[in-house]
Amino acid sequence: MSIFSVFVGGIFFKLQSTSINQTTIQRFMSLPSLADIKKTLITFSMGLVLLFLGCAYVGLVCYATFHDCDPMSTGLAKQRDQLVPLLVMQVLGFIPGLPGLFVSAVFSAALSSLSTLLNSLAAVILEDFVKPRMVKPMTERTVAFTMRAVVVVFGLSSIGLVYVVEKLGMVLQLSATLQSSLYGPMLGIFTVGMLMPWVGEKSVFVGSIASFLTMAWICVNAQIANVTGSFRHTKLPVSVENCSYEFDMGRYLNSSIEYEPTSGSSIYHISFLWYTTLGASLAIILSNMATLVFGRQNVAEVDENLLAPFVQRYIKRHRLQEYEIVGLKKQEKSKSNKQNSD
To answer: Dihedral (C-alpha) 263, 267, 270, 273: value to the nearest 10 degrees?
Structure first.
């Protein structure tokens, strides 16, 4: 993972999570006007930058604290996700109540995000799968029961999957990988729909399916490479020279010998932050290539409200030029007919 992938790939990754994410759009739609949505998005972006800077700062503090006594090498931490809680206990554990406050804040943030996702999922299942198949209109009591049942089922499923996810490596990387494999092609679909009115629905369908299958293949093989250890990222230099607690020195020697970073020459070895960019690019390119088979869509039949503002202006100018040309042709034809009649 490089600085370039963090800033460029990370921008596209957050673009898909804010522009086409159903939970985010649901929050935006609850605001009274478009101006309020823009203000909220600007405030959200500023807060997001501060959050990422804070995460980077925490990472630097972790390395500065543990570089001469690496918990991963001594076995004190099993996963890199455990380094931040270990840092809190080591640096701030002497303050009464502060570790508990940290744990409660982590759980609060996780549960708030999970509750939003579960509510959005329940709304989608109710509106798109349950209601269209009902013969009679659903009562409010039935709607409430259905949504609660969906939340309970998927909530229990999420708890059960915790035991599976912990075996698959870093939680952040796994979550970002799964999101990117889905939202990357979806970002390409929305980009084509808003900016490329000549691409028809069949072309977009073929391009998005091909992009999704390609990204799924890349993500699965990349995750297998990480879990099996066939690909390993370069680590910052660490040691155990200043450790004040006892540990198995043989474990450290074995881990330092076994760990050999491999060069990322395969497409499976690219940073997970590039998955969204790659998936969206594949969807856009393949959709345009599919127009060679299915043909171009008539731009005049496209609803202008579904297009980006600058694309709307281009289409209006294009149509105005067509109308002027047609009008001139009609005038010339009428003049020629009048001269012939004279």
So the answer is: 180
How many CA atoms does the CB half-sphere of 244 hold within 13 Å? Answer: 3
Produce one character per residue of 244-278: b if its CB has 16 or more CB atoms within 10 Å, e if not: eeeeeeeebeeeeeeeeeeeeeeebbbbbbbbbbb
Element housing 277 (H / E): helix 275-294
Cβ count near 105 (within 10 Å) = 10
What radius of gyration do the chain's Cα atoms show? Answer: 27
Q: Which sign, positive or negative, has the C-alpha torsion 159, 164, 167, 168?
A: negative
pTM for this model (two decimals): 0.72
φ, ψ (nearest 5 deg) of residue 323: -65, -40
**Under 8 Å between Cβ of 292 and 174:** no
pLDDT value of residue 177:
75
Nearest to 286 by CA among 183, 175, 179, 212: 212
Confidence of residue 211 (pLDDT cuts 50, 70, 90): very high
Q: Locate all alpha helices (DSSP H) within 126-248, ordered by sequence.
A: 140-165, 171-195, 201-228
Domain coordinates in residue numbering, the chain: 99-165, 310-342
> Which tokens in the block code for residue 189?
């679909």
- The C-alpha atoms of residue 208 and residue 190 are separated, in whole angstroms, by 10
CB atoms within 10 A of CB 199: 21
- Is the Cβ–Cβ distance between 208 and 289 less than 8 Å? no
Residues listed for the chain: 342
Q: What is the pLDDT of residue 206?
A: 92
The DSSP letter of residue 268 is: G
